[in-house]
Amino acid sequence: MHPSRRLATLFFLIALLVVSACGEKEEPATPAKPAANACTKDKLALKTPGQLTVATDKPAFPPYFEDNDPSNGKGFESAVAYAIAQELGFSKGEVKWTVVPFNSSYAPGPKDFDFDVNQISISPKRAKRVDFSTPYYTAPQAVVAPKGSPAAGAKSLADLKDAQIGVQIGTTSLDAVDEKIQPTQQAKVFNDSNDVVTALKQKQVDAIVTDLPTAFYITAAQVPGSQIVGQFEAPGGDAWGALLEKGSQLTPCVSQAVDKLRSSGRLDELEQQWMGQAAGAPELR
Fold this sequence. Notes:
D-Maltodextrin-Binding Protein, domain 2; 2 domains; 3-stranded parallel sheet; elongated
């Protein structure tokens, strides 16, 4: 989720906006495996020949990007993007970053980037409009409560049923509240992450639900005295993938690169390096 000032080494939020499937659960199509040698650099279908164009939102915050500069290779998603680029045969100097607002990234239609990394959750509804690579990260959800809130002592999801919970509209977090907590009173929804944080500060809600990396930043840097009550899995798991134009010939190659990074252990290394603080919150069942 998003905006607030960066504090060095602390976690921040960028929107984790997700539209989940309605009705029956359907899985996004698994990216097809590329043909032999189809992913060599000279054969890639790129927006600009010889250049890999990668998109993300602006501002870009920790722990996903550092110093609001995706091109410096610092931060989890910046590092992942460059690792994918390297697997595809590109040097750091051959990667160009472009700004694409979060909500625009998964809108249908042509794209002016090769792929986008911006904590974009893979969902069946989105997969009808855009392509996704195989997941490079799966984020749990977290409950954050202000000091003195009745929700602060919750030991289980059932303990949160009577709490007034705040969440950003249209997000995986909202789906998680509805499906996993099932509160007796409807969650308060807010238009953006700033409004969610403000509601927590002003104690308009007993607790908020957001992704775990964001929760660490909120409690450390944004809302003094707040605490992470616990973490829990999002319905179906909240998997993030690189987003590409629907039907992109590049999709199988990006997925292949992600798979290689996972099998080699490189993704785990990057996750530990940049997201390692997102651990230790008790699990709520």
